[in-house]
Fold this protein.
Amino acid sequence: MNKESNFESGRCQCGDITYTLDKNKVISAHHCHCKDCQRTTGSGKATILFIAKKYVDLNGELKFFESKGSSGSHVRRGFCPNCGSGILSYSKEISRILYVKAGTLDDSSWITIDSNFFTKSANNWNKPDESIKCFEGNPSIISGIKTILKSF
Ligand SMILES: [Zn+2]
Ligand SMILES: [Zn+2]
């Protein structure tokens, strides 16, 4: 198989920020229904891909906004400073893993969502998909990812 075909591209609305990522290195994909994601996206949830930072090639300078997550971690959300599109976020405590916003990919048809986070704050107009795993609040998979990280 051609190695190039592993790479997926994405960008912000104005095009100042572009990126490519290796889709074979995506750890997992999630819908996050927490209030912070609702506010920062202006929608019912954020859909994010977990991937190690080294597999994402970002072009352009993101502006970061930091907020404190419910577990006490510091979540930094990166936006295009020109058009405001949210591109990715990460927890300051696990900065080697990025949470890429799935909607910024040029083609996201290959994504399969693994689970829902913070279903307790989901809205009735954007109900969580109950056919996949649901976490009422903060998923404990973050600590699992710390273990995964050791294999990178
Ligand atoms: Zn932009
Ligand atoms: Zn969230």
